[in-house]
């Protein structure tokens, strides 16, 4: 992977070059409805003011959590969006006349990860997964040029949470390697081999020897637990592989050794989602499941592991933050606490099976809601020992 700099700091795209593309011509322009126009230079502001003199009255102090000045456009449509859903500024005055935020969109989420600046996309854009390429607007070179022309600052970006098991100095080379390896796994039938590699790479970064086959076991146990036999299509696997680096950054606080199993759980859930009657799968299916169901995926990823309550934390405290707590969940949490004191500890799946009725496959909506709660508690209060 080529190295890029932003004001002397490493600039990282957590997806391979060409992986994420967009097609404005075939899009309903959600980015131009209620969008904030992120202003990169006074020249851009002058252009906007000439076309729309009162626009400065709608200034807002930040753009996508950055310190960039922005103008808030109407929810219905930007002043410059024409009937054919094209930008008038671009059509009349050229690409560079558009505000910087629009030129960068959807790659507008700049985050600090230690010394590195990470570029994440905004999934308001219906991004498509493309083939690797070194040239063109979707390439790393193309994005880096746009970022340079938009004068994105080297600092002032929000911090990404540090992974719980590695400092950024060690985690970032791992993340880059994971993205580099994605291309080799794009056309596989299953996500598991790529997860296996991520797992072994994470263990190597931690100085631990790993055994092959751990991710296969994760997949088997979670399929058994939720009663899911649906196989994700090759396109779905390809999308999860291409998005992996971004998803890993979105969940940057997760321990790097644990995140591959959580991604295996995601790939199974994406397979289930695309087989639902009437479902339409796009890359956003993957992202939305990741964002909405991460605590559930976390539980499913750890069914075969032994939960251990962190010292200085009580589960009762952690559970106090949940909106609702049902009796079976409380029993599971009591059992998790007792489990840590046992000579021979049980895996999470066995602890859940004690509440046989509540967590029998196929899972009820109540059971899934409780697993979400359990996941939130485990994320906050437990670590896991693989069995
Ligand atoms: S300035 Fe152009 S690209 Fe930006 S939101 Fe308005 S219409 Fe869309």
Radius of gyration: 23 Å
Largest sheet: 5 strands, mixed
Q: How does the helix and strand content classify structurally? A: alpha+beta
Q: Tell me, briefly, the overall form.
A: elongated
Count up the helices: 14
Portion of residues within helices: 40-55%
| SSE arrangement, N to C | EEEEHEEHHEEEHEHHHHHHEHHHHE
The hetero compounds bound to this protein are:
iron/sulfur cluster
Estimated share of beta-strand residues: 5-15%
- Average pLDDT taken over every residue: 93
Name a few traits of the molecule:
single chain, 387 residues, alpha+beta, 2 domains, 5-stranded mixed β-sheet, 3-stranded antiparallel β-sheet, 14 helices, 12 strands, 43% helix, 11% strand, binds iron/sulfur cluster
What does this structure look like?
It is a single chain. It is built from 14 helices and twelve strands. The protein has helices spanning 42-51, 88-93, 100-104, 140-149, 168-182, 192-205, 214-226, 234-250, 259-274, 283-301, 315-319, 327-339, 348-354, 365-381; strands at 4-6, 9-12, 20-21, 36-38, 59-60, 70-72, 109-113, 116-120, 128-129, 158-159, 305-309, 382-386. By secondary structure, it is an alpha+beta fold. Helix 12 crosses helix 13 (348-354). The longest helix is centred in the C-terminal third of the chain and has 19 residues, at 283-301. The strands form four sheets. Strands 1-2-8-7-10 form a five-stranded mixed β-sheet. The protein folds into two domains: 4-159, no CATH class; 168-386, no CATH class.
